[in-house]
């Protein structure tokens, strides 16, 4: 390569440099979006590619996530060919001139780790470590062995997830009251010994090795204490530690600011304690109550259907308390959403069908008077029987834009995310009515209350107002 045309690859000053400089056996990097995690994970093994017997593998939970647009494989394609690496696109690995290799693989299921039995992986990388289970991580740690001149080590990246095992694993580096990383502990190395699926932590290597010698005396004599005492560190980073990204894509910050409260705390601020609890997905203070709304726009009525009526409590037995059939009607106009009707009921399936038909007829007449487009939607479970029932339902609503929506594969929080963001910014309002308190109470309590059917109905109506749902047409 002509030296005048040389391309220099180096980490940015700050956390990224610290991550590539640490001597820890296990280093975890990130804690917020945009901190340059993927670049660091890809750059790290390049220091070893001149060694013929070096091999590394970077894992993602889903193999498809490796090859998504702009993901690890695309980024590697910008870096590794600069080192005259030959690419194997079908098996996702690069071979360098020395014979060293760096590969990419998925671990979708827990049992997939068995495919790596007998492997020796000098550089073990995990992209988005919180997506992996503890079982997967610690099994693959047993594959982190090296017969080359490069000592075996692990590097991982992640975004915060309060409910993941990683949150506990790096708990010493996190303020347990605020959820934010403790600045003075960033990059500090601690020592860990794992015994009977439990991690024992120590402030220095000598203490860790003493514990390992006491716990595994026979094994330590055979394989050495280094197999049991591992050094660990956590290095937090956020978007502001990645000025290169801010220069290249200044709109990325506004994208993070536009997220809902929970995702904004996690991905922008790196909060490891934030989770979906009452008042955080929806707050009743976000919804303005209005006395009237104008005409025009799109009216969407969404039904979250339940199949069982409420049973009467018998003496000495607890009452059966099935889900409600719930509905929300939403008007969308000029980037403002107004809830204009909401209620829930526990009744038999035959009564539900009659109620939905009668309500649709009334809605259609009102839409004609108000000059609005009317859309009727309901949730459909997966399966052929549900699809047949959906076709029958569609036939009940002649002249009405009526369709079933398949919501399987997206959890309740995921379906609520778009509406939650707009509500926080004051763009979702409610028409003053006696049902306001019932809906607000359920929204504010979500996801901690036993019933969230109205929340699901609001999510469905909102998403269909901008046509993000999956419509069943067969």
CATH level 1 class label of the largest domain: Alpha Beta
Query: Mean of residue pLDDT?
Result: 87
CATH architecture of the largest domain: 3-Layer(aba) Sandwich
Low-confidence stretches: 308-319, 468-474
What's the β-strand tally? 18
Task: State the separation between the terminal residues, measured CA to CA.
Answer: 58 Å
Task: Bin the helical content.
Answer: 25-40%
- What is the CATH third-level topology name of the largest domain? Rossmann fold
Number of helices: 16
Strand content: 15-25%
Question: Concise description?
Answer:
The chain is 31% helix and 21% strand. By secondary structure, the protein is α/β, with parallel strands linked by helices.
Structure overview:
The protein is an alpha/beta fold and 474 residues long. Helix content is 31%, strand content 21%. The strands form two sheets. It has a ten-stranded mixed beta sheet with strand order 3-4-5-2-6-7-1-10-8-9. An eight-stranded mixed beta sheet has the order 11-17-14-13-12-15-16-18. 37% of the residues are buried. The model is unreliable at 308-319 and 468-474 (pLDDT under 50).
Describe the SSE topology:
Layout: H1 15-21, E1 26-30, H2 37-43, E2 55-60, H3 63-67, H4 72-79, E3 86-88, E4 93-95, E5 101-106, E6 123-126, H5 134-141, E7 153-158, H6 165-169, E8 190-195, E9 198-202, H7 205-215, H8 217-223, E10 229-236, H9 243-248, H10 251-257, H11 261-267, E11 288-290, E12 298-304, E13 325-333, E14 336-345, H12 349-370, E15 373-380, H13 384-394, E16 401-406, H14 412-424, E17 428-431, H15 436-445, H16 453-465, E18 471-472
């Amino acid at each position: 390569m002509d030296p005048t045309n040389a391309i220099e690859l180096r980490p940015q000053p700050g956390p990224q440099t610290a991550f590539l400089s640490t001597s820890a056996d296990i280093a975890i990097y990130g804690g917020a979006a945009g901190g340059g995690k993927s670049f660091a994970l890809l750059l790290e093994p390049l220091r070893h590619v001149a060694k013929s017997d070096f091999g590394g593998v970077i894992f993602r939970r889903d193999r498809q996530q490796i090859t998504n647009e702009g993901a690890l494989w695309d980024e590697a394609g910008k870096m590794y060919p600069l080192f005259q690496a030959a690419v194997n696109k079908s098996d996702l690995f690069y071979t360098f001139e020395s014979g060293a290799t760096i590969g990419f693989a998925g671990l979708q299921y827990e049992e997939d780790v068995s495919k790596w039995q007998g492997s020796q992986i000098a550089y073990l990388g995990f992209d988005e470590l919180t997506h992996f289970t503890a079982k997967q991580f610690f099994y693959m740690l047993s594959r982190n062995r090296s017969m080359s001149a490069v000592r075996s080590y692990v590097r991982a990246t992640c975004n915060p997830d309060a409910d993941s095992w990683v949150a506990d694993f790096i708990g010493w580096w996190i303020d347990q009251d605020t959820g934010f990383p403790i600045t003075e502990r960033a990059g500090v190395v601690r020592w860990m010994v794992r015994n009977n699926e439990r991690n024992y932590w120590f402030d220095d290597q000598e203490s860790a090795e003493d514990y390992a010698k006491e716990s595994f005396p026979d094994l330590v004599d055979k394989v050495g204490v280094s197999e049991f005492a591992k050094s660990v560190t956590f290095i937090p980073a956020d978007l502001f530690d990645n000025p290169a990204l801010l220069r290249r894509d200044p709109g990325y910050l506004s994208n993070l600011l536009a997220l809902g409260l929970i995702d904004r705390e996690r991905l922008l601020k790196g909060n490891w304690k934030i989770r979906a609890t009452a008042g955080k997905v929806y707050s009743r203070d976000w919804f303005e109550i209005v006395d009237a709304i104008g005409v025009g726009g799109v009216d969407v009525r969404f039904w979250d259907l339940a199949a069982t009526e409420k049973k009467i409590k018998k003496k000495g037995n607890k009452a059966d308390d099935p889900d409600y059939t719930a509905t929300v009607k939403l008007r969308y106009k000029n980037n403002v959403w107004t809830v204009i009707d909401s209620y829930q009921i526990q009744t038999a399936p035959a009564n539900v069908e009659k109620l939905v038909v009668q309500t649709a007829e009334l809605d259609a007449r009102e839409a004609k008077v108000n000059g609005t487009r009317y859309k009727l939607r309901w949730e459909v479970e997966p399966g052929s029987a549900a699809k047949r029932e959906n076709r029958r339902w569609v036939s009940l609503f002649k002249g009405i834009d009526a369709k079933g929506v398949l919501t399987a594969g997206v959890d309740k929080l995921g379906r609520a995310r778009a509406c939650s963001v707009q509500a926080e910014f004051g763009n979702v309002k409610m028409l003053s009515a006696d049902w306001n308190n019932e809906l607000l109470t359920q929204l504010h309590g979500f996801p901690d209350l036993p019933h969230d059917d109205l929340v699901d109905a609001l999510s469905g109506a909102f998403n269909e107002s901008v046509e993000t749902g999956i419509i069943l047409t067969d």
